[in-house]
Design a protein that fits this description.
binds NADPH dihydro-nicotinamide-adenine-dinucleotide phosphate; alpha/beta; Rossmann fold; five-stranded mixed sheet
């Protein structure tokens, strides 16, 4: 049930942003938790903080022309939504995927505001990307695309202004090309302008692992609060990209066993446990489809084209691929098979109906803006290292990440208790994240 003061705000968002279904969904999800906040803080209602937080500070859309290896010209569309700078420079990744349009970038940017606030670090919220499909493109083509993209975007960036990072389709290789072009255009070695850099030229150790590790740390905290642990648990992780691979690694380090993972072509089921080095060879080094994993693994693993990975029985489910990948039917299957905890490594991977199913069944549920905040938190640690021209050890950085995730868990847990809904991490994350941003916005006056 949506609060009666919130409903007209939601209607207005839908009216002013037609056709942006993912953005509507993300706003609905956050605003659905804020009724009790307005009752407790009428001054925030008076200052129209909720209406203001739903309107991006700036939206940039630009043409990205580039040539493929045969000389054919292509035109893509680039985006950067600078959503909210109340707590620091805009911060959030770039996504290169054919599905990208303004509604996806706004949903991601909106989520990012509250996620970044939950980390407790001085970073605002933003997101960007392009409707470019990097699949089957050569290294040279990827480089030319990144250079053309940055030739427009650079004028909006800066270490105190807007600091992008990676997301789907943008990994270490792309960050390198983007940074190289920024450096060339501006004639500045401004390390803190982008994160996810290789540690050999200004990146932070653990950044690559941070989102996956952080998701597992968050679920570990939630399990601990419920008197449980990862040890001996069976897990299913969707996706096989950056977030999924390092979530699998950390589950294995904590004594759990991941028995399935996927890509957009299907999933592999490997009851003996996913062989991480083989997965990395197939996906990170050779950039092949996930079926190649099953081909090389031999009899122990099978590849299932299409189908739902969530039919595989597990104790813990970590959706780490993309938005709305886990539906109500998937949630019902997970509950039926005895799943006790779900952590969103991806952004908004569970549909609202799936989230409701988990809540009704008493499954521990870590929403993305809390559970996957370890990536951006470590990006902020990368910015700290760049600002002080320092680099930290793997152990020191991982310890900081673990502390930050424990802190995020604590604030979500305590906020849910304070608002009379113990164990409701969705409510806790939305309210705690919103209040941090709202207080800063109120202090800054009407800007
Ligand atoms: P990658 O591009 O490295 O990997 C994405 C993975 O998801 C791939 O295995 C991809 O398969 C799969 N995938 C994408 N679309 C679909 C689909 N429609 N159906 C099934 N599988 C799909 O991206 P990341 O791992 O970086 O990002 C994954 C998620 O995590 C995203 O939601 C992202 O926003 C979120 N996230 C990422 C952070 C980061 O630090 N990287 C930080 C916080 C959140 P295929 O190769 O076939 O497309």
């Amino acid at each position: 049930m949506i609060d009666e003061k919130i409903e007209p705000i939601l209607d207005e968002v839908v009216r002013r942003n037609p056709g942006e279904q993912e953005f509507h969904q993300a706003v609905h999800e956050v605003l659905g938790s804020l009724g009790p906040v307005l009752a407790k803080h009428p001054e925030l209602a008076e200052a129209k903080i909720i209406q203001r937080v739903c309107e991006p500070e700036r939206q940039i859309i630009f043409r990205v022309p580039w040539q493929d290896d045969r000389g054919e010209v292509h035109i893509n569309r680039g985006f950067r939504v600078e959503f909210n700078s109340a707590l620091g420079p805009y911060k959030g990744g770039l996504r290169f995927h054919p599905s990208v349009y303004l509604g996806i970038v706004k949903f991601l940017g909106f989520e990012q505001i509250f996620k970044n606030a939950l980390t407790g670090m001085p970073i605002g919220g933003g997101k960007g990307g392009a409707d470019f499909d990097p699949r089957d493109r050569s290294d040279d083509e990827i480089m030319r695309f990144c250079q053309s993209f940055m030739l427009e975007l650079f004028r909006h960036l800066g270490e105190y202004t807007d600091v992008p990072a990676g997301d789907i389709g943008v990994g270490g290789r792309e960050i390198g090309y983007l940074f190289g072009q920024y450096k060339r255009i501006t004639n500045r070695y401004e390390s803190g302008v982008i994160t996810g850099k290789d540690p050999s030229w200004g990146g932070s150790l653990v950044r690559k692992e941070a989102t996956g590790y952080g998701t597992v740390f968050f679920v570990q905290e939630a399990l601990k609060a419920a008197g449980k642990a990862f040890d001996g648990r069976t897990c299913v992780v969707s996706g096989s990209g950056n977030v999924a691979i390092y979530a699998i690694e950390k589950v294995h380090q904590l004594g759990g066993k991941v028995v399935a993972c996927s890509d957009s072509s299907g999933f592999v089921h490997d009851p003996d446990g996913i062989h991480l080095e083989l997965l990395q060879q197939v996906k990170e080094v050779e950039r092949l489809r996930i079926s190649a994993y099953a081909d090389r693994r031999g009899d122990s693993a099978r590849f299932v084209p299409g189908g739902s990975i969530w039919e595989i029985p597990c104790d813990v489910a970590l959706p780490c691929a993309t938005q709305n990948e886990l539906t109500r039917a998937d949630a019902v299957a997970l509950v039926r098979n005895g799943c006790i905890a779900v952590g969103e490594g991806a952004n908004m991977p569970c549909t609202p109906e799936a989230v409701r199913t988990f809540a009704e069944a008493g499954v521990l549920f870590g929403p993305g803006k809390a559970a996957n905040a370890g990536g951006v938190a470590t990006s902020a640690l990368e910015m700290q290292q760049n600002a002080s021209r320092d680099s930290w050890t793997f152990e020191r950085t991982e310890d900081r990440l673990a502390q930050i995730m424990a802190g995020i868990h604590e604030v979500c847990f305590e906020t849910a208790e304070e608002y009379g809904r113990p164990g409701d991490y969705v409510l806790g994350a939305n309210i705690a994240g919103f209040l941090r941003v709202a207080r800063a916005m109120a202090a800054h006056g009407l800007v």
